[in-house]
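Researcher: Sequence of AzlD domain-containing protein follows. Predict its structure.
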Amino acid sequence: MIFAIIIGMSLATMIPRIIPAYIVDKLQFRDWVNRWLNAIPFAALGALIFPGILTVKPDQPHIGLLGGIVAIVLAYFGLNVIVVLLGAIATVFLLSM
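Model: Prediction complete. C-alpha cells:
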C-alpha cells in the first residue's frame, strides 16, 4: 500500500512538471518573449542571493554588500564561477576579521 502511495505521489509531482516542458518546446515565441524568458533565471538567482548578502553580518550589512560588489566585478571580467565565489568569500572573510 505504501509503495502505491509513493508511486502515485511521484506521478502527481512529475506530471505537472513534464507537461509544460513538452508544450513550451513546441511553441514558437517572438524574439522579445525569448529575451524576457532567458532573463528569468538571472532574476530569480538575484532574488535568492540578495537577501543573503545583506544578512552576512546583520550588524554590518556593508560587509556583505562589498562581497557582492567584488563578485559582480569578478564576474564582469568573465572569470570562472569558482573564482568569483572564492573572491566574494575571501572579501567577506577579510572584512569580518
